[in-house]
Amino acid sequence: MTHRAAHTEESASLLDALAAAAEDQIVFDLPGIEERYETLRRELPGVDVRFAMKACPVDEVLARLAARGSGADAASPREVEQALSAGFPVARMHYGNTVKSDQNIADAHRLGITVFATDSLEDVTAIAEHAPGARVFCRLATTGEGALWGLSNKYGCPPADAVAVLERARDLGLTPAGLSVHVGSQQMTADAWRDAFDRIAGVLEALHRRGIPLDHVNLGGGLPALGYRDKHGRALDPPMDKIFAVIREGMARLEEIPGHRLGFVVEPGRYLIADHGAIRAHVSRLSARRGPDGERQYWLYLSCGKFNGLYEMDQLQYRLVFPSHRDAESVPAVVAGPTCDSDDAFSHEHGLIPVPKALASGDPVWVLSSGAYATSYMTQGFNGFSPLPYTWIDGGDA
Ligand SMILES: Cc1ncc(COP(=O)(O)O)c(C=O)c1O
Fold first, then answer.
1. Gap from CA of 151 to ligand 1 centroid (Å)
2. Who has the most CB within 10 Å: 14, 199, 239, 240?
3. Domain range holding 130?
4. CATH code of the domain covering residue 221
5. Tens of pLDDT, residues 77-104
């Protein structure tokens, strides 16, 4: 199956919506998101999708995924409420955040959540107290190697601790139901998945020996967006066919471990959304300034940056289109956002970005593959810059 040609290209209707936008905004391509969801279902047949809603807590996006049969991975009571009102049945939701207070657990339980992630004795004990009888899955730590954002250390536990946590769950009247991993966000290697399956297999075997049967494995997030460029400006080209093949093989292997009757869950965030959201911004100024070394350097300041839509510029050089200057003479520039914060700049130690030399203040710029974590990572008026408004296309009309 080929992925790149079909999936990194923005749909004509998304580009039309960007072209039609007179003001800054983020546009979501709902049919594109649905198509990506269906691709995932075909690639991982029988696996339940729980959309990691933190990647795009936008009601219209959530409603479309819910209508397709997706579930939701919620990380707070507020996300549970939003998912419920977007139409996700509570039976297709879980509380996937291992970090939670007693109050968070009680609130989620009151809202009907019966499945919780955990990774420590303290947390599982609190779940038993505030969500009695719940089902829990224990998150195993991974190295995060091969991912752009490793997500290691803060979550998950080693295999032996997972066994202890699930034993404690059973002793406290909870149902030890599953194991989970997260291989790291924008995971570029199939090997990371292989390692994760090895870890999971070891714990399943240990649990079998202790008479603790599980009913599911949650493979977490980490499936990559297809249209990103790294901080060198190189197109990231994730080996999707290989990744999906390794996941299918890994699941088949786990199903053979005795003592468990496993279903599988996956929690994609950026894979579903990133390539089907794009920002219409504008040029604030293209300047050529001399640095302390006396060298002249072009800086392109945009109306949107790290604090209003492009948070992941620490690792990405977002793809830019300058629709009013196609095929024009270009100059290498550092691209930066509009705020007074020096972190508000694309990573540039590894390569500058060619931009049209004739850019003028007010010219439109499109930022492609910027849909994931864009609306959720916007500050409220830092330096007076408001969060970007969003809109969506629904099969043709913006
Ligand atoms: C528990 C959990 N699941 C899924 C995701 C989604 O990750 P990604 O966007 O890499 O698919 C995250 C992201 O932080 C997460 O914390």
1. 9
2. 14
3. 30-274
4. 3.20.20.10
5. 999 999 999 999 999 999 999 999 999 9
